[in-house]
Amino acid sequence: MEKNDGNIVMFPKWKSRLESAGLQALKEKRYEEALEALQPLLDYGVASNDVVTGILMSWIELGNFDEAEELCQKQMKENMDQYYHYLHIYITILFQSNRYQDIVDLLDEVFEEEEIPHQTRTQLWQMYEVSRKLLEDYHKEKGKELHSDFLEALEKDDVRKQWVLLEQLKKQRAQSYIDTFTAVLQNKTTHPIIKTAIIEWFRDSRVDQSLSIQKFGQQMEVNPLDLNPLQSDYILKQIQMRLSGIEQSNPTMYDMLNKFLSHYCYVRYPIYPDEQEVPAIVEALKQLGHEYLQLPYHSDEENEQVQTYKEEIELCEQHYLLIVGESS
Protein backbone atom coordinates (compact mmCIF):
# COMPACT_ATOMS: atom_id res chain seq x y z
CA MET A 1 0.00 0.00 0.00
CA GLU A 2 1.05 3.61 -0.45
CA LYS A 3 -0.33 6.90 0.74
CA ASN A 4 -1.76 9.38 -1.76
CA ASP A 5 -3.00 12.74 -0.36
CA GLY A 6 -3.82 11.07 2.92
CA ASN A 7 -5.76 8.19 1.32
CA ILE A 8 -4.56 4.60 1.53
CA VAL A 9 -4.02 3.22 -1.98
CA MET A 10 -3.39 -0.39 -2.97
CA PHE A 11 -0.12 -1.18 -4.82
CA PRO A 12 -0.75 -2.39 -8.38
CA LYS A 13 1.17 -5.63 -7.82
CA TRP A 14 -0.81 -6.47 -4.69
CA LYS A 15 -4.04 -5.67 -6.52
CA SER A 16 -3.06 -7.95 -9.41
CA ARG A 17 -2.02 -10.77 -7.07
CA LEU A 18 -5.25 -10.63 -5.06
CA GLU A 19 -7.39 -10.50 -8.20
CA SER A 20 -5.60 -13.45 -9.76
CA ALA A 21 -5.75 -15.55 -6.58
CA GLY A 22 -9.39 -14.70 -5.93
CA LEU A 23 -10.62 -15.48 -9.43
CA GLN A 24 -8.65 -18.74 -9.49
CA ALA A 25 -10.19 -19.77 -6.15
CA LEU A 26 -13.63 -18.91 -7.55
CA LYS A 27 -12.94 -21.06 -10.62
CA GLU A 28 -12.04 -23.95 -8.34
CA LYS A 29 -15.17 -23.36 -6.21
CA ARG A 30 -13.21 -22.37 -3.13
CA TYR A 31 -15.64 -19.58 -2.37
CA GLU A 32 -14.48 -18.55 1.10
CA GLU A 33 -10.87 -18.22 -0.15
CA ALA A 34 -12.12 -16.30 -3.17
CA LEU A 35 -13.89 -13.82 -0.89
CA GLU A 36 -10.81 -13.46 1.33
CA ALA A 37 -8.78 -12.39 -1.70
CA LEU A 38 -11.38 -10.32 -3.55
CA GLN A 39 -13.05 -8.46 -0.65
CA PRO A 40 -10.07 -6.09 -0.07
CA LEU A 41 -10.28 -4.98 -3.71
CA LEU A 42 -13.89 -3.96 -3.14
CA ASP A 43 -13.04 -2.28 0.18
CA TYR A 44 -10.27 -0.19 -1.47
CA GLY A 45 -12.52 0.77 -4.38
CA VAL A 46 -10.38 -0.96 -7.05
CA ALA A 47 -12.65 -3.90 -7.87
CA SER A 48 -13.22 -4.56 -11.57
CA ASN A 49 -16.53 -5.93 -12.84
CA ASP A 50 -14.98 -9.42 -12.85
CA VAL A 51 -14.03 -9.00 -9.18
CA VAL A 52 -17.46 -7.68 -8.16
CA THR A 53 -19.09 -10.53 -10.07
CA GLY A 54 -16.75 -13.00 -8.34
CA ILE A 55 -17.70 -11.63 -4.92
CA LEU A 56 -21.40 -11.83 -5.78
CA MET A 57 -21.11 -15.40 -7.07
CA SER A 58 -19.20 -16.44 -3.93
CA TRP A 59 -21.81 -14.90 -1.65
CA ILE A 60 -24.61 -16.59 -3.58
CA GLU A 61 -22.90 -19.99 -3.39
CA LEU A 62 -22.32 -19.53 0.35
CA GLY A 63 -25.95 -18.49 0.88
CA ASN A 64 -25.12 -14.90 1.91
CA PHE A 65 -28.04 -13.50 -0.05
CA ASP A 66 -28.50 -10.28 1.95
CA GLU A 67 -24.93 -9.11 1.29
CA ALA A 68 -25.17 -10.16 -2.36
CA GLU A 69 -28.48 -8.32 -2.82
CA GLU A 70 -27.18 -5.11 -1.27
CA LEU A 71 -24.02 -5.05 -3.43
CA CYS A 72 -25.96 -5.96 -6.56
CA GLN A 73 -28.47 -3.15 -6.04
CA LYS A 74 -25.58 -0.72 -5.53
CA GLN A 75 -23.92 -1.82 -8.80
CA MET A 76 -27.21 -1.53 -10.71
CA LYS A 77 -27.51 2.10 -9.58
CA GLU A 78 -23.87 3.14 -9.97
CA ASN A 79 -22.60 1.06 -12.90
CA MET A 80 -25.14 1.73 -15.63
CA ASP A 81 -22.91 0.33 -18.39
CA GLN A 82 -23.21 -3.08 -16.70
CA TYR A 83 -26.82 -2.65 -15.57
CA TYR A 84 -28.23 -5.71 -17.34
CA HIS A 85 -25.29 -7.85 -16.24
CA TYR A 86 -26.05 -7.06 -12.59
CA LEU A 87 -29.80 -7.27 -13.18
CA HIS A 88 -29.30 -10.91 -14.24
CA ILE A 89 -27.31 -11.58 -11.08
CA TYR A 90 -29.92 -9.79 -8.96
CA ILE A 91 -32.66 -11.98 -10.42
CA THR A 92 -30.49 -15.03 -9.68
CA ILE A 93 -30.28 -13.92 -6.03
CA LEU A 94 -34.07 -13.53 -5.85
CA PHE A 95 -34.55 -16.89 -7.57
CA GLN A 96 -32.21 -18.68 -5.17
CA SER A 97 -34.17 -17.12 -2.30
CA ASN A 98 -37.49 -18.38 -3.78
CA ARG A 99 -38.67 -14.78 -4.11
CA TYR A 100 -40.65 -15.34 -7.30
CA GLN A 101 -43.13 -12.55 -6.60
CA ASP A 102 -40.27 -10.04 -6.33
CA ILE A 103 -38.90 -11.24 -9.69
CA VAL A 104 -42.29 -10.88 -11.39
CA ASP A 105 -42.85 -7.40 -9.89
CA LEU A 106 -39.34 -6.26 -10.82
CA LEU A 107 -39.53 -7.49 -14.41
CA ASP A 108 -43.03 -6.05 -14.86
CA GLU A 109 -41.48 -2.69 -14.03
CA VAL A 110 -38.42 -3.26 -16.22
CA PHE A 111 -40.49 -4.31 -19.25
CA GLU A 112 -42.75 -1.29 -18.86
CA GLU A 113 -40.16 1.43 -18.31
CA GLU A 114 -36.96 0.49 -20.08
CA GLU A 115 -35.65 0.12 -23.63
CA ILE A 116 -34.13 -3.34 -23.51
CA PRO A 117 -31.80 -4.88 -26.13
CA HIS A 118 -33.60 -7.69 -27.98
CA GLN A 119 -31.40 -10.56 -26.77
CA THR A 120 -31.53 -9.32 -23.18
CA ARG A 121 -35.31 -8.93 -23.37
CA THR A 122 -35.62 -12.53 -24.57
CA GLN A 123 -33.49 -13.80 -21.66
CA LEU A 124 -35.40 -11.71 -19.12
CA TRP A 125 -38.73 -12.89 -20.54
CA GLN A 126 -37.68 -16.51 -20.08
CA MET A 127 -36.78 -15.75 -16.45
CA TYR A 128 -40.13 -14.00 -16.04
CA GLU A 129 -42.13 -16.93 -17.40
CA VAL A 130 -40.31 -19.47 -15.23
CA SER A 131 -40.79 -17.32 -12.12
CA ARG A 132 -44.45 -16.69 -12.88
CA LYS A 133 -45.11 -20.41 -13.32
CA LEU A 134 -43.30 -21.26 -10.08
CA LEU A 135 -45.23 -18.49 -8.32
CA GLU A 136 -48.54 -19.90 -9.59
CA ASP A 137 -47.56 -23.40 -8.43
CA TYR A 138 -46.51 -22.04 -5.04
CA HIS A 139 -49.80 -20.13 -4.61
CA LYS A 140 -51.78 -23.18 -5.64
CA GLU A 141 -50.07 -25.43 -3.10
CA LYS A 142 -50.12 -22.75 -0.41
CA GLY A 143 -53.79 -22.11 -1.12
CA LYS A 144 -54.67 -25.79 -0.67
CA GLU A 145 -52.83 -25.84 2.63
CA LEU A 146 -54.48 -22.63 3.90
CA HIS A 147 -57.90 -23.81 2.74
CA SER A 148 -57.50 -27.09 4.62
CA ASP A 149 -56.24 -25.31 7.74
CA PHE A 150 -59.18 -22.87 7.60
CA LEU A 151 -61.73 -25.69 7.48
CA GLU A 152 -60.01 -27.30 10.48
CA ALA A 153 -60.10 -23.99 12.40
CA LEU A 154 -63.78 -23.65 11.46
CA GLU A 155 -64.52 -27.10 12.82
CA LYS A 156 -62.69 -26.28 16.07
CA ASP A 157 -64.41 -22.88 16.30
CA ASP A 158 -60.99 -21.20 16.51
CA VAL A 159 -62.04 -17.75 15.30
CA ARG A 160 -58.65 -16.07 15.80
CA LYS A 161 -56.95 -18.71 13.63
CA GLN A 162 -59.70 -18.40 11.02
CA TRP A 163 -58.91 -14.68 10.82
CA VAL A 164 -55.14 -15.22 10.48
CA LEU A 165 -55.64 -17.81 7.74
CA LEU A 166 -58.07 -15.57 5.85
CA GLU A 167 -55.52 -12.74 5.89
CA GLN A 168 -53.11 -15.11 4.13
CA LEU A 169 -55.79 -16.44 1.79
CA LYS A 170 -56.47 -12.87 0.64
CA LYS A 171 -53.22 -13.14 -1.35
CA GLN A 172 -54.94 -15.83 -3.44
CA ARG A 173 -57.65 -15.37 -6.04
CA ALA A 174 -60.96 -15.94 -4.29
CA GLN A 175 -62.53 -17.41 -7.44
CA SER A 176 -60.93 -20.80 -6.68
CA TYR A 177 -62.67 -21.03 -3.30
CA ILE A 178 -66.13 -19.58 -3.89
CA ASP A 179 -68.10 -22.76 -3.15
CA THR A 180 -66.49 -23.37 0.24
CA PHE A 181 -66.69 -19.80 1.45
CA THR A 182 -70.19 -19.16 0.13
CA ALA A 183 -71.31 -21.94 2.49
CA VAL A 184 -69.42 -20.22 5.33
CA LEU A 185 -71.24 -16.95 4.60
CA GLN A 186 -74.57 -18.76 4.94
CA ASN A 187 -73.64 -20.49 8.18
CA LYS A 188 -75.38 -18.82 11.16
CA THR A 189 -72.60 -19.87 13.56
CA THR A 190 -69.75 -18.22 11.60
CA HIS A 191 -68.44 -15.15 13.41
CA PRO A 192 -69.53 -11.83 11.79
CA ILE A 193 -65.91 -10.63 11.57
CA ILE A 194 -64.96 -13.74 9.59
CA LYS A 195 -67.86 -13.10 7.23
CA THR A 196 -66.67 -9.51 6.76
CA ALA A 197 -63.16 -10.73 5.91
CA ILE A 198 -64.56 -13.19 3.35
CA ILE A 199 -66.75 -10.51 1.74
CA GLU A 200 -63.77 -8.13 1.53
CA TRP A 201 -61.68 -10.87 -0.06
CA PHE A 202 -64.39 -11.57 -2.65
CA ARG A 203 -64.81 -7.84 -3.33
CA ASP A 204 -61.07 -7.24 -3.80
CA SER A 205 -60.84 -10.34 -6.04
CA ARG A 206 -63.66 -8.84 -8.13
CA VAL A 207 -65.98 -11.80 -7.70
CA ASP A 208 -68.96 -10.93 -9.87
CA GLN A 209 -71.91 -13.03 -8.76
CA SER A 210 -74.79 -12.83 -6.32
CA LEU A 211 -73.99 -14.37 -2.92
CA SER A 212 -76.40 -15.27 -0.17
CA ILE A 213 -75.26 -13.97 3.23
CA GLN A 214 -76.72 -14.64 6.69
CA LYS A 215 -75.62 -11.95 9.14
CA PHE A 216 -77.15 -10.59 12.36
CA GLY A 217 -80.39 -12.43 11.66
CA GLN A 218 -80.70 -10.89 8.21
CA GLN A 219 -80.66 -12.85 4.96
CA MET A 220 -79.35 -10.81 2.02
CA GLU A 221 -78.16 -11.20 -1.55
CA VAL A 222 -74.95 -9.31 -2.32
CA ASN A 223 -72.69 -9.02 -5.36
CA PRO A 224 -69.20 -8.28 -3.98
CA LEU A 225 -68.31 -6.33 -7.12
CA ASP A 226 -71.02 -3.79 -6.27
CA LEU A 227 -69.72 -3.12 -2.75
CA ASN A 228 -67.71 -0.04 -1.77
CA PRO A 229 -64.68 -0.32 0.49
CA LEU A 230 -65.72 0.32 4.08
CA GLN A 231 -63.90 3.65 4.53
CA SER A 232 -65.45 5.19 1.41
CA ASP A 233 -69.05 4.60 2.46
CA TYR A 234 -71.32 7.66 2.53
CA ILE A 235 -72.95 6.89 5.91
CA LEU A 236 -69.57 6.35 7.59
CA LYS A 237 -68.36 9.70 6.26
CA GLN A 238 -71.58 11.38 7.39
CA ILE A 239 -71.07 10.14 10.97
CA GLN A 240 -67.42 11.26 10.90
CA MET A 241 -68.53 14.69 9.72
CA ARG A 242 -70.94 14.98 12.66
CA LEU A 243 -68.04 14.16 15.00
CA SER A 244 -65.70 16.70 13.39
CA GLY A 245 -66.30 19.25 16.17
CA ILE A 246 -64.70 16.83 18.63
CA GLU A 247 -61.68 16.52 16.32
CA GLN A 248 -60.99 20.21 16.91
CA SER A 249 -61.67 20.31 20.65
CA ASN A 250 -60.34 16.88 21.70
CA PRO A 251 -58.26 15.06 19.02
CA THR A 252 -57.58 12.13 21.36
CA MET A 253 -61.28 11.47 21.83
CA TYR A 254 -61.93 11.87 18.11
CA ASP A 255 -59.29 9.26 17.23
CA MET A 256 -60.80 6.86 19.75
CA LEU A 257 -64.34 7.40 18.45
CA ASN A 258 -63.19 7.02 14.87
CA LYS A 259 -61.72 3.63 15.79
CA PHE A 260 -64.92 2.61 17.56
CA LEU A 261 -66.95 3.62 14.50
CA SER A 262 -64.63 1.92 12.01
CA HIS A 263 -64.56 -1.33 14.00
CA TYR A 264 -68.33 -1.24 14.57
CA CYS A 265 -68.98 -0.83 10.84
CA TYR A 266 -66.39 -3.48 10.01
CA VAL A 267 -68.15 -6.08 12.14
CA ARG A 268 -71.50 -5.18 10.52
CA TYR A 269 -70.22 -4.97 6.92
CA PRO A 270 -71.87 -5.05 4.40
CA ILE A 271 -74.83 -3.96 6.54
CA TYR A 272 -74.44 -0.20 6.93
CA PRO A 273 -76.47 1.96 9.28
CA ASP A 274 -79.21 3.89 7.48
CA GLU A 275 -79.68 7.64 7.72
CA GLN A 276 -82.33 7.30 10.43
CA GLU A 277 -79.80 5.54 12.69
CA VAL A 278 -77.09 8.19 12.30
CA PRO A 279 -78.16 10.63 15.09
CA ALA A 280 -78.42 7.84 17.69
CA ILE A 281 -75.06 6.34 16.68
CA VAL A 282 -73.39 9.77 16.86
CA GLU A 283 -74.85 10.34 20.32
CA ALA A 284 -73.82 6.86 21.47
CA LEU A 285 -70.25 7.52 20.32
CA LYS A 286 -70.12 10.89 22.08
CA GLN A 287 -71.35 9.39 25.34
CA LEU A 288 -68.85 6.53 25.11
CA GLY A 289 -65.99 8.95 24.41
CA HIS A 290 -66.72 11.03 27.47
CA GLU A 291 -67.24 7.95 29.65
CA TYR A 292 -63.98 6.31 28.53
CA LEU A 293 -62.00 9.52 29.12
CA GLN A 294 -63.95 10.24 32.34
CA LEU A 295 -65.05 13.68 31.16
CA PRO A 296 -68.34 15.37 32.09
CA TYR A 297 -71.04 15.28 29.44
CA HIS A 298 -74.67 16.42 29.46
CA SER A 299 -77.01 14.79 26.99
CA ASP A 300 -80.66 15.34 26.22
CA GLU A 301 -80.86 11.96 24.48
CA GLU A 302 -80.90 9.36 27.25
CA ASN A 303 -83.15 7.00 25.32
CA GLU A 304 -83.20 3.26 24.88
CA GLN A 305 -81.99 3.38 21.28
CA VAL A 306 -78.81 5.27 22.20
CA GLN A 307 -78.13 2.79 25.01
CA THR A 308 -78.57 -0.12 22.59
CA TYR A 309 -76.04 1.37 20.17
CA LYS A 310 -73.57 1.98 22.99
CA GLU A 311 -73.77 -1.67 23.96
CA GLU A 312 -73.45 -2.82 20.35
CA ILE A 313 -70.43 -0.56 19.70
CA GLU A 314 -68.67 -1.77 22.86
CA LEU A 315 -69.40 -5.41 22.04
CA CYS A 316 -68.11 -5.01 18.47
CA GLU A 317 -64.98 -3.29 19.80
CA GLN A 318 -64.27 -6.15 22.21
CA HIS A 319 -64.70 -8.78 19.50
CA TYR A 320 -62.64 -6.78 17.02
CA LEU A 321 -59.71 -6.42 19.42
CA LEU A 322 -59.84 -10.10 20.40
CA ILE A 323 -59.90 -11.39 16.82
CA VAL A 324 -58.22 -8.75 14.65
CA GLY A 325 -56.00 -7.06 17.20
CA GLU A 326 -55.09 -3.59 18.38
CA SER A 327 -52.93 -2.49 15.42
CA SER A 328 -55.39 -3.26 12.63
From TrEMBL:
InterPro entries hit by this protein: TPR-like_helical_dom_sf
Domain of life: Bacteria
Protein's name according to its UniProt entry: Tetratricopeptide repeat protein
